[in-house]
Amino acid sequence: MFLSKKAIPRRALLRSAQAALALPLLDAMIPAATAWQKTPAKPVRRLGYVFVPMGCDHARWTPPGSGRLGELSPILASLKPVQDQLTVITNLRLQNAYPGTHDTSNSAFLSAASSKHTESSDYFLGITADQIAAKEMGKETQLPSLQLAMDLNLLAGVCNNGYACVYQNCLSWSSPTTPLPSEAHPRVVFERLFGEGGNADARRAALRNRTSLLDSFTQEIARIKQRVGSPDRVRLDQYIESVRQLEREIERAEQGVANNKMPDLDRPVGVPAAFADHARLMFDLQILAFQADITRVIAFQLTREQSNRTYPEIGVPDPHHPTSHHGNDPVKVEKIAKINTYHVSLFSSFLQKMKATPDGNGSLLDHTVYLYGSGMGNPSLHDHENLPILVAGGAATGLKGGRHIRYEKGTNLSNLHLTLLDRVGVQLESFVDSTGKVEELFDQVDVA
Amino acid sequence: MGEMMNRLPAPGRAALLAVAVSVALHAQPRQQQFVDRYCAACHNERVKSGGLSLAHADLSRPGAQPKLWEKVARKLRTGVMPPPQAPQPAEADRQALLRQVENTLDAASAGRLNPGRTETLRRLNRTEYQNAIRDLLALDIDAASLLPADESGHGYDNVNVSELSPTLLNRYISAAQKISRLAVGGTQTSLQSDTISLPADLTQEDHLPGMPLGTRGGVSALYTFPQNGEYEIQVSLMRDLAGVVSGLRTSRAHEMLVLVDREPVHTFTVSRATLGNETLNEKTLQTRIRVKAGPHQLAVTFLREGASLIDTPRQPTASRFNDRRHPRTAPAIDRIAVTGPYDATGVGETPSRLRLFVCRPAGPDQAREEECASTILSALMRRAYRRPVEKTEADKPLAYYRRGRANGDFDAGITMAVTAVLTSPEFLFRVESDPKHVAAGGAYRVSDLDLASRLSFFLWSSIPDDELLDVAAGGKLSQPGEIEKQARRMLVDRRAHNLATNFAGQWLRLRNIDAMQPSGNLFRDFDANLRQALRQETELFFDSVVREDRSVRDFIKADYTFLNERLARHYGLPNIYGSRMRRVPLTPDSRRGGLLRHGSVLSVTSYATRTSPVLRGLLVLRNILGAPPPTPPPNVPALNESTMAANLPMRERLAAHRSNPACASCHRTIDPVGFALENFNAVGQWRDLEVEDQPVDSSGALPGDKEFRGIDGLEAALLRRPELFVAALTENLLTFALGRGIEYYDAPAVRNIVGGAEKDNYRFSSLILGIVKSVPFQMRRTEHQ
User: Fold this and answer.
1) Which residues 247-286 on chain A approach chain B with CB closer than 8 angstroms?
2) Fewer Cβ within 10 Å of end Cβ, chain A: N or C?
3) What is the pLDDT of residues A236-256, one digit of tens each?
4) What ipTM does this complex have?
């Protein structure tokens, strides 16, 4: 274990998540002055992305048939409990990720753009889909978006084939020249979201303390106002306005505590030693972030491209990257499949938790769309064709689930990005090299 | 001159003005000839070059149009006008006109004081906040982790500081809570965890500056432990991009030490065997140490193996951190996590507790506790609010004390009260309000207390100390000679190092060093060690001029600099060994010396793959000469990089600047300055040959001056007219001192300061004293109606 006394068990962190009651949407939760009062509240829409590296073993990934999602493939078997909210898409591609590299697999996943080939600070990519969403959806939340990862060490300089390390480190880019750093340390993420945490009483006390400090601040501003002339009083009024905004946020947070939606929040101190524990903790933090409505857009890099991580816990003591260059050796291919299965199972646990967490008039999963996948298809060929892609959740936004969309020809991943952005209310003409939308996500499917 | 005018009785002032005007009228025909001959061809009503027409400018009374004539004077004095292609006046004529115009402007300004107006409300910026906490509570914090970066205005980050966003306010509150807990000593027992990270491109093969002798690599940081107790130290090693620990090639073991205040407290053995499976997080590199509360020097580093034990491979580069280019040959430290306190046993006497607790409760009852609390808070508030406080003002934070006391002990109460003091706008903001009796648009003397703050935030970027505060509170700061005395005292204080780090760091753009990433292909040997050395060379050099009160001419040309082995190697200078930065006397062939030869300045004015004569020219013109070119026109088309062959010499690559008339109007002034520095490559190394082994053509020129060659020529040209550089430096210092941009009405004060400094051979202190005694520093203009 990491700490010499038992690391805080994950279960303690989310003490009441499973036991939480389904709260009906109370009148008090609907702003009185809006027309929404007479209608069910607008379902909150959230968007999440999970990236895994180095493609997959297609033989064991791709489910048979197409249309309705019937029998799941070996790698996807763990998703059975949420199958009705899952869509597998086959034959999506990233044109702009070529030539085949690990860096561009990561950088193109959310941007669908080509990376400028440089190892210096003059990198250039594009705006990633999650950031486009964040610009809209982030207006109402404390954090416009959250960038998470699992690898703690940052790399500097050149990473691979003359590409700067930012391409491999950063999934989200808020502008072609602004990669967003991600956080892999659970404590740092927790503190960003919740400060000190603690039980409901402690959090209430902390919020009240803050309000009180803001009151004092306001009073002293009023005193200063008497000493200055009129243009400066305008400036002081601006400060008061900032205080008011902050007070509103605190009010929102206090309501969250009062409605008892949040369990006791123990701040994690260290990084769990085992990969699965660390990953589950990072997934749990995403659920908490959504529950507390701190953010509605999350991008999570489950493992970095070119990762040499080993997975002895599932019987794969070999490093991931060299094994992924399997050259069709069946032993190696099977190991890759095991790793793929492992990653998917972690995602599946997360989805099941989301399904079990109430939100509004449904579950967290109903109101959230997740895209899980890789920017690389066949790792042995280093190509960016037939990417492993899953879309989960979002029933309340119209996503039908329970299907397997199989394209005849390679179709651009940007089509999917365009579609998902549309579903969360960001309507664009096109996204990078998109040729249309993935309408099949919403079609009625004949139950054959 | 302005001050003298101020003290003259009114009739005397009028007499002096009359003399000035009559001088103007007498000289008019000759000066009018000058304008007609050298200016009117472009600056007439029809052509109006640069938007300026001199048709309605009255040469006999420049004082009536100061904004126009100060602009003209600046252009003429710095030689920017007349432009290079136009006929140039004789030097004597130019100087005569300038003298006449400037004298008149000075006289006019004296009769109509305009000290300018700083913002009424200015919050402490991040640097000032950090320093204020240090001086207030004897606590070293990392403000960069608590507060967002500040915006810059006019080149300095203490100019645009009147905004307060909700996010910033929130962060100030969080910071205050964290700081007060740390200062009082943590009555809570919650675990705190911090991470000390090392730069990924730090070479750790050898001894690093500041580390104990006999070690290599690693880091030493001042860490404040909140309570007495046990702390878990977890070390993570640098890994390559495959996730493998770097530098563990052979089976050899490396000894890694944990030191607290230079005493070893634990040893780890790092080898392939002990680490087990390399790709997992290290579970074995953790230990618990028992530490007393307060600040301690925490270091983790490797024992340096004797040279005889290693078969030292040939090392073409000093940099070793990238497994593709120059892999590590020994393991290195990535980050250290400190978690604790476990088994906490209270808190002893830390420096911050000693500073804060000026008394202890005389007895256990509430009345005596509150009396002491009130004393503590009054003392704190006086320093924090930078003014004397009434006893009743302590009632406000005392209410917070009571709340904390009710839920805890005396310390808990003090913690809450300190938070309240640190979130007060009286601490966070500097407020300069107009006195009631002064008319709109009039000038008034800044109060002693406000002046004290101006002085300390200028020289130290921090709050006034007790001595300065006492002098100001007693109304003595405005007495003759006092402010000079205080300024001199503050300049020799350790805190004046702020000028070398904070001021020079912005004046010379040194902060950009951390972000620069030279192309690894072209500049293989560039790492964090070099970055740090480059920056320190300039900071130490600037500091030496301040401490030794040297002439600021030394900034342009000096016969010494500061080097360590890494930097000396970078510059190709022999016989410098060891990691310590030390003063080195220079010989002429060393090619080093003044600021314009510092690798730091030369690197931040370059791109990742090549030098930029434009950026260098701009830095010199703006910050060294005080002749900023106008902003580029709005629709400059994007450079089509591919059409400019990379193997052309730099001068040819920038040929379009000269051939296109729209570009040439500015670039024929900017580029020649940068060309003079072409002997220094993009990372500040000397070169005689540039791309494709073509010899560097370093001929260049300053505006309005004759051509010269190379850095030697540039330095000589600058030193021939030192008043220009001194004026530029003064303007930058004044911007930093006032926290506002310098306007045309400040020009007479600047001239006054430069004139005074000249009498003292331009010593650094003469600039500082000139500034603190100047009209803009000592006075302020009220709001116009």
Assistant:
1) 249, 267, 269-271, 273
2) C
3) 998 999 899 888 878 877 776
4) 0.85
